[in-house]
Amino acid sequence: MIPIKSEADLVGLRAACVAAMELMSELEAMVVPGRTTKELDDVAARRIADLGGRSPFFRYKGSFPGHICASVNEEVVHGIPSQRRIQYGDIVSLDVGIILNGWVGDTATTVAAGLVEPRVQELLQVTREALYAAIDKARPGNRISDISRAVESLVTSHGFSVVRDYVGHGVGRKLHEEPQVPNYVVPGSDPKLRPGMTLAIEPMTCLGRHETEQLDDGWTVVTRDRKPAAHFEHTVLITKDGPEILTCLRKSQFESKVR
């Protein structure tokens, strides 16, 4: 069953999503050479506590030690915040979530610490564009495959690859709800989109090949060829008039991209 949110539900969900995006804006500005990813996590922990919320990632499955995920360079997702210092030219993928009054806000972005190689900068730009191309397909009557195809076709047309081992998902009362939202077209079940569905649409892409592997820490996912990866995510509500980006502080600006 794919949960359909009521107008009353959306009051709480919108609040959680705005809180997640406000936190993300603060953390993005902290991605500078010399800072550790643990410092970012410490700030996230304090801000979430100040709001009376909690992180959906902390102690996820009983063991994830961070309040956010911070994945550097070839790390795709689930990077554990640590004393690793950000270096000039690194890219850092931040996955930020908050549970507020029982609702989950979930968002991600990849930030460059200084100038990066042109092809890496292109990867970030194309992945961001793929996110908005996918959001544009989040409309009643379309299907999950329309979202997936939008990501896959744009990313591969630029010579990059799409991660296949990890996908987007529904989000609301839980961090992971139905349906799954792959970034590539998968044969089989293909739910039709309806107003009230809320999706975490999150392209995850690679400069090289799409294969990934998990490190010995049991969490961090890296590209098998150790080439850089990017990750962008918004929580999106499907309305009768089209998509509404819930994890967005400047809705008029971003909605113009998808309407």
CATH class: Alpha Beta
In the CATH classification, which architecture applies? Alpha-Beta Complex
Total discrete domains: 1
| Secondary-structure element order, N to C | HHEEEEHHEEEEEEEEEEH
The end-to-end distance, rounded to whole angstroms, is 28 Å
- Please list the strands of the largest sheet in the order they lie side by side: 7-6-8-13-14
- Please state the structural category: alpha+beta
Number of strands: 14
Q: Round the mean pLDDT to the nearest integer and report it.
A: 95
- Could you tell me the strand content as a percent range? 15-25%
Q: Please outline the major beta sheet.
A: 5 strands, antiparallel
Helix content: 25-40%
- CATH topology (fold) name: Creatine Amidinohydrolase
Shape: globular
Number of helices: 5
Low-confidence stretches: none
Instruction: Report the C-alpha radius of gyration, rounded.
Output: 17 Å
What's the CATH H-level superfamily name?
Answer: Creatinase/methionine aminopeptidase superfamily
